[in-house]
Structures are given as C-alpha cells and as structure tokens.
C-alpha cells in the first residue's frame, strides 16, 4: 500500500489509542509516524507502545516511524495558599525562593536559574500567559514585579520567561533517563524540548550517539535567534506553535511558521507543524473551517509532516481526526494551485553531487514525463535531497536498512521499501522497475528515473541518474 499524498501525518498515542487495534486503525486511516509523549508516559508504557507499533508494522509490512518526545525542563510556580489568589493589573507582586505558600502579594518560584537570568523589564508569564508580570527590580533570590495582566493565580502553574536565555540545559534528569530508555528501545526519532541554543542540540546528539535521529522543537524566542545553527545541528525541526505562541505575540507565530518551514526545506531537513491543528476534534467529530484552513496552509507551504496531539491521544474521535488530516492533505495536493505554491518556494541546490543529481532527477522526470523517481540509499540522505526539490511525482526509496526506512517515514513524499542491496547496474534497474510496478507507482510502458551511487552500497556516493521504462511484470530494457 502507499499513500496518495506527499505530506506525512504524525499521530500522538495516549489513553484513547494505546492499543494494537487503535494503532492499526490510525495507520490505515493515514498516520505515518506515531509520537510517544514522554511528558505523560512511563517507561513501561513507552515500551508497550513501542512493541504494539512494531507488531502492527510487521503485520502490515510497511515501515512505521516512532518519535519519542522528551518533556524538557518544567518551570512552575510553587504552592499558593488555599490554591488560588487574585492578582489585579497594576499591583506589585513579588517572586522569591522562600518555600512558604504564596498569596495575592507574593509567590514562591523555586527556580534560582530564573532569578539569575532576570533583569528589569523582563516578562514573566504564568499559566500559558494568562497572567503576565513585568520585572521592576531583581536579585539572586527575589524579583519585584508589576502585574501587567491579572487573573487567578493557581498552585503549580507553568512559568515562561520569553525574553531571556535561561542558564539551563534542554535535558532535565528525567529527560536524560527517558532519552536513554527510548534510545535503547529503538525509536527512530527523539524530539528535544526547551531548545534555546545550538549547544542544546549538540548535547542531545552526544547522548543519543546515533541511535536515533534528533528533532529540535522550536518553541522559544532564543531558538529563533539561533535558528540556522539549530537546523544545521538537527535532523529535523518542529514548529511547536503552542509554547511559541505563549512566548511570542500570537500574531507573530504564522510568520515564523513560514520562515522556519522555508529554512528547514532549504537545508533539506524535515519540518513538522504541530499544536492545535484540529483541536476542536478532541470533542467534535468534524473540525472548524479555520482549522481546515490552518492544516491546508501547512500543506501548501510544503511542510514535511503535520501533527495531531490530544486529538489522537485522548480525544473522542482519534481515527476521524487522522482521516480528516488525510482528506485535507489529499485535497490540497490535488488543487491546481499546489504545484505553483511548491515551485514558488524552491531554493537553489547546494554545490554537492547529491544535490546536483537530485535537481537533475526532478528536471528529467518533468521533461520525459516519468511517473516516479526511485532512489537507492543507505543513510537516507539521497532520499532527503530528492524530497527537498519537491517533485510532483512519487519518490520511492529503496534501502537495505529498516532503520533508514522508518526514519524517512517523516519526510515529504518518500515511500520507503526495505530490500537487499543490489550488486550491479542491471540488477539496479531490474529491481527498481519491478518494485515500482509492484508498489503500483508505474504501469507497463511508463518511464521512471533512478538515482543511485556507484560503487553500490557506498554511503554518500550518489552519482548515477538513469531513465528506465517499465514493462509488463515490471521490467523492460533500460533506455541508454
């Protein structure tokens, strides 16, 4: 089986869907990658989810990607007396390290690293920005603030400090333990939360040691300032619009979504658009028109994947949400404006043999009216470079490594088939022709474009572009 779309769907597992039957239904409805949210998942539960996904993968004989999303450091206000206090705009309010329960005049903030970074004029946001404080003066253990936006202050609510870089690593002790567990399990992607700087990604890569690909979640303003280096250090990025919309003015988020998408595409790195895409489907069987437009915009912009969170993890209509995501994507990709939208966002290739072959494959496929591009790859880099050009024909990736096939399930347009390596040129053409026929991407008499590297099986050696014609049964002598 193969999808009739290029963009991929990432579905979060949770209480509503953590069963073999539901995972199977979600995959058949359109999910290409499954997300395990370590903020709400124990190691035992993560292991069970992993095993269920792999069982469905074996049953359906299709590579399925698994992404483990680390929680990241959680900054929270301390306890509030009687669990609630009313703050009024314009009043003074103190944050400190004292352990006593807070009230309408002060509250404990048990994070010395926040006080170390604060300065007069800094903003402190509580409860996803529902309460906003402006720092007037600060010390290593205390900050005096003015309430900019008041409201009801509750115990243990989250804290954001958007305009400073905190002296914190992106990996808490919990994250380090979670990372080791999921990497040992064999997940394909590890998503890194609370990325503030390039060095956060470097640290995660060192701990992962090649056992999984690294996805950096862009959710803090400081990450935007270091975006180019973060993309370079990562294998993929996610536009985490929820936290980004708390720390930035919400009207800035759409522009940044487009900038991040374009920057990732220019670098040839997959980009995921996440948060509140079909939020109303947590409770309703159909989305709002605005949500449909939001998903469609991400597809028109050439995002590699679109993600469901609570919609598939704990919502009432998880299968319907995945089905709707699939329907929207298919409709957009069949729209007359879609090709022009993708073409308008193309960026020049890098001066490498792999990019030269990828660009040529796209151009040749257009010129000879080929119905598919077939790319042989071990590491997956060739498939990603071809996907970067956003050809309108399907891209079938042939690899001998199941890990590569699973990781590429996150990337735009790539249909991966795990097969043994080829030994010579004739076998390369034979196998590509037979598999593109059996996977129903081509019929007899249609042309395909093949990319590969010689010597065969050598990573990073893509240097061959070939045109072949598919015959009955999948094979016909190649075109010189």
In short:
This protein has helices spanning 20-29, 43-60, 112-117, 173-185, 198-208, 221-225, 227-233, 241-247, 253-267, 289-300, 310-313, 318-333, 338-344, 353-368, 381-388, 402-407, 425-438, and strands at 8-13, 33-37, 65-69, 84-87, 92-96, 106-108, 123-126, 131-139, 142-149, 151-154, 159-160, 189-192, 213-218, 236-240, 271-274, 305-308, 372-376, 395-399, 414-418, 447-453, 462-469. It is of the alpha/beta class and 480 residues long.
Spatial strand sequence of the major β-sheet: 1-2-3-12-13-14-15-16
What's the oligomerization state?
single chain
Low-pLDDT segments, ≥5 res: none
Count every beta strand, where a strand is a DSSP E run of 2 or more residues. 21
Overall, the morphology is elongated
| Helix count, DSSP H or I runs of 4 or more residues | 17
Distance between the termini: 31 Å
Note down, in words, how this protein is organized.
The protein has 480 residues and is an alpha/beta fold. The protein folds into three domains: 8-72 and 170-338, TIM Barrel (Alpha-Beta Barrel); 81-160, M1 Pyruvate Kinase, Domain 3 (Beta Barrel), CATH 2.40.33; 353-474, Pyruvate Kinase, Chain: A, domain 1 (3-Layer(aba) Sandwich). It is 36% helix and 22% strand. An eight-stranded parallel beta barrel has the order 1-2-3-12-13-14-15-16, surrounded by nine helices. Strands 6-5-9-8-7-11 form a six-stranded mixed β-sheet, with no helix packed on it. A five-stranded mixed β-sheet has the order 19-18-17-20-21, sandwiched between helices. Helix 10 (289-300) packs across helix 12. The longest helix is centred in the N-terminal third of the chain and has 18 residues, at 43-60. It is elongated, with a radius of gyration of 24 Å.
